[in-house]
Amino acid sequence: MATITDVAQAAGVSISTVSYALSGKRSIAASTRQRIMRAIDELEYEPNAGARMLAGARTNILALSAPLGPDGHLPTHMRFVTSVVEAARAHDYDVLLLATDDEVSGIRRAASRSLIDGVVIMGVATVDERVPLVRRLGLPSAFIGVPPGIDDMSCIDLDFDRAGRDAVAMLADAGHAAIGVIGHPHSYVDRDTNFIRRFTHGFDEECRARGVRTATQWPEIGRSGGQQAYDLLREQLPDMTALVFHCNEPIVEGALRRISELGLSIPGDLSVLAACASYAADELETPLSAIPLPLDEMCHSAVENALALVDALGHPKVTLIAPTYLDRGSIAAPKPAAHPA
Amino acid sequence: MATITDVAQAAGVSISTVSYALSGKRSIAASTRQRIMRAIDELEYEPNAGARMLAGARTNILALSAPLGPDGHLPTHMRFVTSVVEAARAHDYDVLLLATDDEVSGIRRAASRSLIDGVVIMGVATVDERVPLVRRLGLPSAFIGVPPGIDDMSCIDLDFDRAGRDAVAMLADAGHAAIGVIGHPHSYVDRDTNFIRRFTHGFDEECRARGVRTATQWPEIGRSGGQQAYDLLREQLPDMTALVFHCNEPIVEGALRRISELGLSIPGDLSVLAACASYAADELETPLSAIPLPLDEMCHSAVENALALVDALGHPKVTLIAPTYLDRGSIAAPKPAAHPA
DNA sequence: GCGCATTGTCGAAGCGCTTCGACGATCGTC
DNA sequence: GACGATCGTCGAAGCGCTTCGACAATGCGC
Predict the structure, then answer these.
(1) What's the complex ipTM?
(2) Confidence class for position A259, pLDDT limits 50, 70, 90
(3) pLDDT at B202
C-alpha cells in the first residue's frame, strides 16, 4: 500500500502539497499537479480511510438506516437500499447498512464512533425514535418519508396526499362514483405509518369533494389477503366500478386473481389503478395504470439532502415529489347503470 | 464526544491503561478496570473509528459484495443481505454494502483504503473476477457459493449436488418414474451459474442411477415463464407424475397456477417438491414440501469464515451444508398406471 | 519603486488511538 | 538474600493524513 509520503517522494514535493493537490483547497501549479497525479497513478495510491477520518473528520461513509420488520416487503426494501447505494457512489460515498431491528442503537454507535458523515433514514414511522436521536447528535440526516409535524429535518417523499386526490380525480373524471381501495396490510396501519395516513387523507377528501362513495380494506399480508379484501369490498360497496390498490404486489396479485376468477375484465367491468406503486405494475398479468412511487428520485434526493447537510451547504427542508401517472389502459368509463362488481 | 483522554483523566490512569482495559491485551487490576469502566459509562465513551483504524489496523467493517443484476431475485437478495448484516453485528462488525454493478472496483477501493477487514462475497459466478482480485489483495474473504476449481478460498454453500440427488431419491422412493424440473431462468443458466450446474449434475446422475426419466425447462423470468415451462414439460414428458422446482417463487407461482387451472391436485395428481427454496414454500397457495436453502446458516458461516481469516485463526476451506427436508404433504405415490399430468 | 494581493509550496502540529519498551512492586524458588 | 517471573502501570512513538501558519516569488496598481 503506497502512502502519501511515497507519492510525495515520487513527485518531489511535500506531503502537504500532495494533500492539497487532491483536495483542491489550495492552488497548485499545473505542472506540479501533473507530476503528483502521475505518481498517484503509478503507485496506485489510495488514501488510508482511517487516517483521513482522523485528520480530516470526513469519512465518506453514509449510514443507511433501513430496518426490515417481519412484515417488510423485501423487493421494495431491496430497491430502496440499492438505489441509495448507487446515489451515494456517485458522490464517492460508501454505505454502511444498518438493518438490525434496533436501528437507534446502530445510528448512535456509528455516529459516536465518528464512523459516518451522515445518515439516510427510511421506513419512517409516525413516531420515530430516530428523529430525536439524530437531532440530539446533530448528525446530518435525510429522511425518506415525512414524520408528521417535523419541519427541522430534511425529508423527501412522494406527495401522498396529492396522489390520493389524483387517484380519485382520475377515476371520477372517467365517471366512477363508487371506488374501492385495497390498502396496505393492517399491520402497517397498526403501526401508524405516516404515508398511509397522508394518502388516505387526500383520497377521502377528494371523494368528499366529488361526492364519490368509497370503502377501504386493510388486508392481511399476501395473496390470500388480497383476495379476501376484494371480496369484502364487493360486499361493502356492491356498486363498485373502480378499484385502487395502495399496497404491494402480493396483495395486488391476489386481488387480480380473484377478479379474474369472477370473470371480470379490466377495465371493461372494473377500472383499476395502482397507486404509489413501488413494483413494476406493467409486469403484472394485467398491466395496470399506475401512479408510480418515484423510488429512485426519492433515494437520490435523500442522499443529496444528507450530503448537503454534511457540507453545511443546505438547511433542512421537506420536499414532496408531485405524483405522475402512467396510463396502461386499466381505467375506462364504467358501464352504464350496471352493477359489474 | 468523549475521547480516551477524558476517560483516562476521569479514572485517574494513563490512556494506555484505558486502552489495555478495553483490549484485554495486558493485565489490569480489577479495581482499576472498574474505575475505567465506570468512567466509560458515565462519559458514554465510544472509541473513534478513524483513530482505531489508523493505530490498530482493525476497522471492524466487513464489505458485502452483493451485485444485483437486472434479473436478480430481490427478496432472496434482501434476505442474504440482512442475514449477513445480522451475523456481522454479532461480532461488533458493520457491513459496507457494495451493490454496484462493478463489484470488483468496489472491493479494490475499500481494501486499498484500508477501510475493511474482510469481505463476504455472494452471487458467485463460475468465472468470477473477484477471486483473483481478493487473492492478489490478500484480503480475508468468504464466499457464499463455490466457484468451481477453487480450493484456496473460504466457501460456504448448500451441497447442491446432494440436494439434486436427494430430490430424485425422495420422489423415486415414492414411486415416481418421470420427473420434470422447472429450473432457474435461462438468463441465470446463460451466465453459467455454478450452483445450477451442481444441482443439475446431482439430479441427472441420480435419475440415471435409478432409471428415472426426466426433462428440464429453463423458463423466462416471472409468472408467465413458470406457466409456459409447465406446459412445455407436459409435452416433453407426458407421463410426468412429479415436478421439482429449482427456481424462485414467481416462476413457482405461475406454474402452480397453471397446474390449478388444469384441475390437477397436489399431491394426488402431481407430486411437487421445492428444491433449494430460498422462499417460504409453506406460504404458497399450496404449501410445498421443500429442500430449503439454509440461507441464514450460509450467511452466518460466511461471516465466521471471513472473521476467522481476519484473526488469522483459520485457513481457507470449502464447506458444503447437507440438504434437509421439510415435509408439507405435497409428495405422494403416483396414481397407478394413470397419465395424470 | 513601493505596497499589497495572489500563487505556490513548505514544515510542523495534531487528530485519537494502539502498542512498544520500560520500570517498580510483589511473589516464588533456590 | 538474590534472582527471575509476573503483575500492573506508565510515557513515548507513531499510524497516514489534513490543515495551520509561514515564507518566497510574482504580478498588479498607484
Answers:
(1) 0.89
(2) very high
(3) 96
Residue-level pLDDT at B316: 87
Q: What is the residue type of A4?
A: I
Q: How far is A117 from chain B (nearest CA, A)?
A: 12
Chain C positions within 7 A of any protein Cβ atom are 7-12, 14-21
Stretch 201-230 of chain A: residues touching chain B, C-beta under 8 Å: 222-224
Q: Please compute the mean of the pLDDT values over residues A116-130 and round it to a whole number.
A: 90
Q: Which residues of A touch B78 (CB under 8 A)?
A: 68, 74-75, 77-78, 81
A113–B49 CB contact, under 8 Å: yes
Q: Give the CA B19 to C1' C30 distance in Å.
A: 38
Exposed, middle or buried: residue A18 (CB in 10 Å: 0-12, 13-18, 19+)? buried
Q: How confident is the model at residue A337 (pLDDT cuts 50, 70, 90)?
A: low
Query: SS3 for B285?
Result: coil
Residues of chain B where predicted confidence (pLDDT) is lower than 50: 340
Residues A61 and B53: their CA atoms lie apart, in Å, by: 14
Q: How confident is the model at residue A325 (pLDDT cuts 50, 70, 90)?
A: very high
Q: Which carries the bigger pLDDT value, residue B336 or residue A272?
A: A272
pLDDT average, residue stretch A97-106: 84
- Domain A4-47 matches domain A160-292 at the CATH topology level: no
Lowest model confidence (mean pLDDT) among A9-23, A88-102, A208-222, A232-246:
A88-102
Domain B61-158+295-321 architecture: 3-Layer(aba) Sandwich (3.40)
User: What proportions of chain A, in percent to the nearest 5, are helix, strand and coil?
Assistant: 45, 15, 40
Which amino acid is present at A108? R
Phi, psi of B181 (to 5 degrees): -130, 130
Look at residue B132 in the predicted model and tell me its pLDDT.
92
Task: Give one DSSP letter per residue of B195-244, joined into a string.
Answer: HHHHHHHHHHHHHHHHT-EEEEE-PPSSHHHHHHHHHHHHHH-TT--EEE
Domain boundaries, chain B: 4-47, 61-158+295-321, 160-292
Q: Which of A51, A78, A85 has the CB atom closest to B78's CB atom? A: A78
Sequence-distant (≥ 6) Cβ neighbours of residue B23 within 8 angstroms: none
CA distances from B220 to A190, A257, A275, B182 (A): 38, 21, 27, 11
* B52 beta carbon to strand C: under 7 Å: yes
Strand order in the sheet with B154-158: A318-321, A154-158, A141-144, A118-121, A61-65, A94-98, B94-98, B61-65, B118-121, B141-144, B154-158, B318-321
For residue B166, the surrounding DSSP H or E stretch is helix B160-173
Partner-chain contact B50 A95, CB within 8 Å: no
Provide the pLDDT for residue A145: 93
The string of DSSP codes covering A287-339 is: --EEEE--HHHHHHHHHHHHHHHHTT-----EEEEPP--B--S---PPPTT--
- What is A160-292's CATH topology? Rossmann fold (3.40.50)
Residues 104-123 (A) with a CB less than 8 A from some CB of B: 109-110, 112-115
Of A48, A96, A222, the CB nearest to B283: A222
pLDDT at A340 over 60: no
A4-47 belongs to CATH 3.30.9.10 = no
Asked if B81 lies within 8 A of A75 by C-beta distance, the reply is: no
pLDDT at A338 over 60: no
Distance from CA of A17 to the nearest CA of B (A): 20
